[in-house]
Amino acid sequence: MQSMFFSDAETDKDQTFLDEAWNILLGGDIKSTMSFLSKRSSYGDYFDDNARVSETIRVTEFFLSYDFNEIENVPAKHLKELSQLVAWRRVTRNGDCFGHETQPYAPLIGTGARFNLDIKKMYREMYGPGDLPNGTTSWNPVQDSKEISLWPELRILSKYPMSVREVLLLCVGNLSNSGLIVLEEDFVSETRLLLECFSILSGENIIDTHPNPEQKLMLFTVKELRQFAADNNVRVFGAKHRIAEEIVSHVNPKKLNSFIKTIFSGLCLQILIDNCRLFKNHIRDQTHLLDSYITWLENVQVLGQKVYVSSPSYPDPNTDLTPRHGFDSEYSRQYLIDPFWSEEVRSVREIWDPGCDLIIRELCEKYQWFAGLYIEDAIRDYLPKPILKAFDLECIKGGFSGSILSKYGEARVVELGIKFRIEDVLNCRNCEKQFLPTSVTPYVVKRVDGKVLFCDSCYNQAFLSDLRSDLGLDKNKMLDQLLELSNILEAVPTYSFVKRPMLINVPIEKQVEIVCALAKFPPADSFKSTFGSWLKALILAGVLDDGTMKGPLGIRCLALDGHECLSMAEKTVDDWMYSNGIPHEKEFMYPDHPKYNPSGRLRADWRVENFLIEYAGLLDMPDYAATMETKKSLSVASGFELIVLGPEDILNLAKPLGVLLRGKGS
């Protein structure tokens, strides 16, 4: 295996040091193959404020595929250790705050575990004195078949420097049909790793241990796939996965394998480092983090086999119950007088008038400590658009930070001496745990319009559907819960509501019922994967007595073959094709076209071989009629024959659709 190439090493000693670090990665128990894909932008800003222009570190974007010879036989002990590593890394990155977009990442280890961390002590060890998070965080991973992190055995970690371990192990995993794509978003951002072989528990069948050709093709860009298809005389259209399917179906396997090898080849990855000093400092910092991890690992308690916790797999911090009296006054005063922010503050003051002060006073009176969440939008709604446009342009030219109206507004609250009442310590209406309203995620606060009744953990379970485990769900219980939620809402629950609830203007007691029900509700997507669609689940649960659901443009219902239709007329057409034995594809994606379909989002109601069929029932609406004309032009440009049906055709579909019956003896 070739070694990594560095450029502009400060000394021969530096070059040797860096080469050795890379050679360690290539040795040991991991067989690595790498391939160069494309050059990325500079990441020097992440390392040193003085390195923003000349002293930069440029990292090549790459795929890294591993071959773990013994990964399927990894002892359970090591898998537990890996879960601890993930939990620890999330804490070191975020303190006692965990963003919902990074969770859950609990490996499928077959156990529940509780990891107790002394956050304050850990941060003191890693970063020295200063303002650091307080309290202890509990991490409760549960089995989750949708979002997992899988890592090599910890016994090989000692062979690698911490900088290498960061790229190999301390990443965030996302499961996709392309395999396990890992995004490293620390100092070397935008790095993508493809783990070609990885450990999964037997019997789960979550993903194949070896990606098939279609999964590998998903790693290419759409442009690359289309060019390859054209070179091999394969007609492709639609989304990337459809293009991959067509290529696999029609291209000679030898040619296909040769194409795939352009990524899965043994070419060496080249990383260009323009400042070795910064790179070495980064390695030292990461080594210090590893020392803290080893110390922390000794204090981890595993609860035992088959222990499942009721909460989802994200942390439940023991919140500091010291009430807030308002915004951070010291920071706000510093913001207004610090020369570093002077241009930014000057720009805001030029457009700030007494009306803005009145707005922030009203917001503080209504929302108290949450006023800062509403300042930006309220001021933008108040100021004239020409002034805002000029202000935004100045912000772009000046490189000012985001949401500066909100930041200045909070500082202005302190400057005006606006007072808040002392924050109350509340009892969660679900788990009865004590908490402070300001500990709740801002995303949730805005969705309940500042009327906080539950702790952050319970709100996250209710409002962030993707975080709830869908492992071992009982179909009948799922339907019972869906019917119960419908009764609480006194309305048909929509998929979007269960996915991301909005409870503004909902009475307090009704909010309590809804949140308590959603906190134990299965993930919204699990209804689609279990029953085929949200509509089917509603029908099976008995929420829709007549099997239909009113939508903005018609009545949603199911055809005889299970296709979801957006109107009764669509159902009639679909049922006619089904009854006449005509295979048909519902909601077919039109081919991309630079003029007629640049977004690639246009769909046809049905596709039958080379025919596209549209039911046009709303031609009296100008936008709808214009879209239909676009589809006609797009069909001609794409080589399809378009059949447009109207309400007048429903009673005699054999006439416009008779062409579909050719060759069927009719």
What fraction strand?
Answer: 5-15%
Instruction: Compute the average pLDDT.
Output: 64
Rg value: 29 Å
Record the strand order, biggest sheet. 15-16-17-18
Structural class: alpha+beta
Shape: globular
Poorly predicted runs of 5 or more residues: 1-128, 130-210, 264-319
Number of strands: 18
Written account of the structure:
The protein has 25 helices and 18 strands. It is of the alpha+beta class and 666 residues long. Among the domains are: 220-262; 329-416, no CATH class; 426-545, no CATH class; 558-661, Endonuclease, Chain A, CATH 3.40.960.10. The strands form 6 sheets. It has a 4-stranded mixed beta sheet, sandwiched between helices. Helix 6 (222-231) packs parallel to helix 7 (240-250) and helix 11 (342-351) runs antiparallel to helix 14 (385-398). It is globular.
Short description:
The protein is α+β, with helices and mostly antiparallel strands. The chain contains 25 helices and 18 strands.
SSE layout and pairing:
Elements: H1 12-26, E1 31-42, E2 57-67, H2 76-94, E3 111-118, H3 119-127, E4 136-139, H4 162-168, E5 172-176, E6 179-184, E7 191-195, H5 213-217, H6 222-231, H7 240-250, H8 253-260, E8 272-273, H9 276-297, E9 301-305, H10 329-337, H11 342-351, H12 354-367, H13 372-382, H14 385-398, H15 404-416, E10 426-427, E11 434-435, H16 442-447, H17 456-463, H18 475-489, H19 495-499, H20 508-519, H21 524-531, H22 534-541, E12 548-551, E13 554-558, E14 564-565, H23 568-579, E15 585-589, E16 603-608, E17 611-615, H24 622-638, E18 641-645, H25 654-657
Parallel strand pairs: 17-18
Antiparallel strand pairs: 1-2, 2-8, 3-4, 3-9, 5-6, 6-7, 10-11, 12-13, 13-14, 15-16, 16-17
Helix pairs in contact: 2-9, 6-7, 10-15, 11-14, 12-13, 12-15, 13-15, 17-20, 18-20, 18-22
